[in-house]
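S.,

Sequence below, as promised.
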Amino acid sequence: MSDLQKYFRTNRKRLITKWDHYFEIYDRHFKRYRDREVTVLEIGVSHGGSLQMWKHYFGSRARIFGIDINPAVQGYVESQIELIVGDQEDRSFLRGLRERLPEIDIVIDDGGHTMSQQVTTFEEIFPYISKDGIYLCEDTHTSYWGRFGGGYKKEASFIEYMKLKIDELNAFSGSKHNKNLEVTDFTRTAKSMHFYDSIVIVEKGIRRKPTTVRAGRRVLS
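The prediction came back faster than expected:
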């Protein structure tokens, strides 16, 4: 059992609501940041319990920021935890965060879960997180729910949007043979993509066009 699961199961602080398989995923991708200077941004605060969980998990050198549209969350401020009130679907608000926050290492989108919110937040925030940072969007099963603007194979869904990003991830090699596939900023700054049940993760990393390397001696003529 991970430290996150232990914390969750013994939690007597503010309410935390998660799907049970999330904790293993969090730990797999976040553990390298523990006990380091790290800036974490969680979008969607609810009762504030997950902010306290991240504070515990990442340690005393972490700065935890929460964003929510509900002004009441300002009452959740405590040491290492800061709150900002705003609408994640408002591009002007999201762009303004660049001036208000230090460089972000980890983004966790647990906000309103609508397609517009998830796509808008990714487009505005992903380019400005640290060069080896992590962007995690959870509860992506709403991409299949009509009341959130989703639907199976619906082009406007966040899942379908991220499927297209897979093509961009491969554009260094793929664009050579496909005139409609272009190398983008995403191609140059996204190291990997991970799809789980209800979670999509993009890990950043500076990339250049791959080159073929060889080692060893030729055997067959």
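Residues 171 and 183 are 5 Å apart (CA to CA).

Coffee later?
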